[in-house]
Model the fold of this input.
Amino acid sequence: MRRSGVYSIRLWAVVWATLALPASADIVAVDSTDPIQWLANASDPGLGESWTASDFDDTSWSPGFYGIGYDTSGDASGLIATAVPSNSRSVYTRVEFNEGGLGSVQNVYLGIDYDDGWALWINGTEVARSANMPAGPLDWNSFATMGHESSNRATPFYEWIDVSATGLPALKNGNNVVALAVWNDQPGSSDLVLAPTLVLDKTPQIQRAPYLQCGTHDAVTIHWRTDIPTDSEVLCGTTLNALSVCAQDPTPKTDHAVKVNALSPDTYYWYGVGHAGTVLAGDDADHGFRTAPLPGVAKPTRVWIIGDSGTADANAAAVRDAYQAYTSGTSTDVWLMLGDNAYPDGTDSEYQAAVFDMYPELLRRTVLWPAFGNHDAIASNAISRSGPYFSIFNLPAGGESGGVASGTEAYYSFDYGNIHFVVLDSQTADRSPGSAMLTWLEADLANTAHDWLIAYWHHPPYSKGSHDSDAEMRLIEMRENVVPILEDYGVDLVFTGHSHAYERSFL
Done:
């Protein structure tokens, strides 16, 4: 039940339905600016794999540049510099580079943005193929065993593959020939895309800038992504230009999530991230955060709340810019997302465009607390806790940010000062009385003594906007089964998304 006492909060809510990389010493052997020879295959060219040999005569092929392919839907058109016929089942490409002193080269990496499958040869030796290409010799009408979407970005978003084991022995001093092909997963596909780069002696670079998760009064988790695996190291401190190592993880990985402990409450920290004594991002005035106040301590709090924001378009940018102009430099303490955070399917590349490319400044300064929406659920599974949503976000399933442990990142709770936030999963979780989520919800609300209670999830219990809460089961069940619990425990505010309209109850 609701407690008595003196309550103090100041809440601002805005509700709505790139990164500069460090300099590299990499040797770029093949890039999008290099001229290539290509052959698009709608019928059998009768070549088998003979076209991959270093001495193959490709002078009759067409000249062009990467990326190459076609896209009848227009989604990936920004990646395509050289267009091929839309009935092509595959495209063969060849490019040459000259490099001396290969004895000192330590690694070879292929960066590739593609749709649907690919294979790479260097000087006639197959070096690698994507996991969705069949075994055995590859011909013009070989099909990828499953689809793979390109990033659909204006510039390639490379997946990096270490091909050193087979690539280094295939290289030679002087002229080298790279043969690279891309295949569709089915006849009549709407797109076929190949945008690669080949790099020798690759050094780690930030691919996804640092962002903050699971913040409390004495801890925060910092996430970032590197293009190739490294160990993880976080520097932090209360004095800029005097940071020290505060957390490490020796396990090589590309997705880094490092928890920093033993912080002081309501204190501003500067930070940097990288590996083995090398800072890849931060250690500057742009990377910092303030820890939460002690639990129960009242403090004026600015909360930014956005819902169904994952459009990655000018509308999302306009809302972001309007909010930043309104705040006039005042920091955001808490950031909530109400679901449908990346359209249309919640894929990793869609999250990159809709979240990480859209809000880089806020992500590195303010902890983000998302809810799970129906579009997020297309590429992610809340039951198995798999997919982009659950790999991108680190959420307090164990009650480590306050509240009762839920045992799942699909729904959870957290504290900020004298505010207790409850985040529900209206998409996948059982919404019936006595279910795991509703049982946890009652236990969590009964266990908190915070002055202010705020709940949020995706599907609105009351709406006559783009969705009807009298006609759709998820909305009906959240109203009939969840709202009474919130009312019993005196929850002050509820925020939801899904229905693309601005609606609120009477005060």
Q: What stands out?
A: Residues 1-24 have pLDDT under 50 and may be disordered. The longest strand covers residues 220-237. Helices lie at 164-170, 314-327, 348-356, 360-363, 376-379, 388-392, 436-447, 473-488. Residues 10 and 301 are 6 Å apart (CA to CA).
